[in-house]
Amino acid sequence: MLSLIQSHPASLGPHPGAGQAVGVTVINYNTSAETLRCITSLGACTDPPAWIEVLDNASRLEDFAHLQTHLPALPHTRIRLHRSDSNLGFAAGSNRLCEQLLQEPDCRFIGLLNNDAVAQTNWVSELVNSLQAQPLPSGMAGGRMHKLNAPDQVDTLGICLYASLMPADRQSTTDPYLGPTGGCCLMTRAFVEDIVQTTGYLFDERFFCYCEDTDLAVRANLLGYRPGYTDQLIALHEGQASSKSGHNQFIAFHGIRNMIWMQFKLIPSSIVIQRLHWLLIGHIMTISWHCLLGHPRLMFIVYQEAFSKFSTLRIERSNLITHHRISHKILTIQISKKFYRQGYIRKTIARIFQPS
Question: Are 317 and 203 a contacting pair, CB within 8 Å?
Fold first, then answer.
């Protein structure tokens, strides 16, 4: 349940550009300074969005007070601040904010931007143009994100699904593009309404966070959408601002469990059979590496939790199959022939043997 805490109407009325039909969601969790920076960057876009829906996801009271006190008034954007008494996670939090935007009849595009990202001035215009330029229904679009502290280095170019059926941030334009990351994307209203009506939800709230964007991208592809991409730099990303660490057990638990759920729930049997050896090797390596890192109990809990939901997911899988609108061979084209992202094995081995 969200509570509307504060609403800032646009002081100069709607902007005449593409952003007039765009709403963007931003979620805060104990990182109000980054959230305020993100909101300000959206307001500085050449075509600023007409709406920004902000959710405070049960942050500490001092962090929420800082966010509420310093929430800016933007010339062409209505900002609405909501608060949840419990942490809904990214998936449920995003769903609630998207529902708020769907109540706006003039909102034709719904965007998501991580609160630790800084939008470039072309964020709205590039993503709207990418959605409108596709010959096939794209539904959703993303673009080039670089690292905030190293702007010449790639952070993510969307999602790549590898031959092991493990997803990761796409690092090269030569890799297949499955779809945009949930932390930087724009969706059409028609796509959001279709995906909710057909599959039951936008983001799978059981995931809480991590891999929920891959789950959405796979469903989009299976429904016949071909997500768009612009190779223009549209945002800079700090990364892991809320979790404060690139490697912790919270991330490992949700990332691995949710990946298993996505694989079991969505990947067509023909593709699983074709890549079964890579899939098994991927899971064996994941378990082995985490055990070597001293986390065998974590792996037991992850796989136990993942397998415990298979009976429910099996029913959902059967229902989703009836809605597939493409041949599964088409999805195969969007899967990389590489086992996993380049350099992953080398970096993992280095982590295992690094001095404690």
Answer: no
Quote the CA–CA distance of 49 and 76 in Å, as a whole number.
8
pLDDT in tens, 70-114: 999 999 999 999 999 999 999 999 999 999 999 999 999 999 999
CA 66/CA 72 separation, integer angstroms: 12
% residues pLDDT > 90 (the chain): 85
Q: Which residue reads 């969005």 in tokens? A: 49
Retrieve residue 266's tokens: 């969505």
Q: H/E element holding 70?
A: helix 61-70
- What are 27-80's pLDDT values in tens digits? 999 999 999 999 999 999 999 999 999 999 999 999 999 999 999 999 999 999
Query: How is the chain split into domains, by residue range?
Result: 8-237, 249-353
What span, in angstroms and rounded, lies between the C-alpha atoms of 221 and 203? Answer: 15
Q: What is the pTM of this model?
A: 0.94
**What would the CATH number be for the domain defined by 8-237?**
3.90.550.60
DSSP string, 143-208: EEEEETTEEEEEEESSEEE-TTS-EEE---TTS---B--TTEEEEEHHHHHHHHHHHS-SS-GGG-
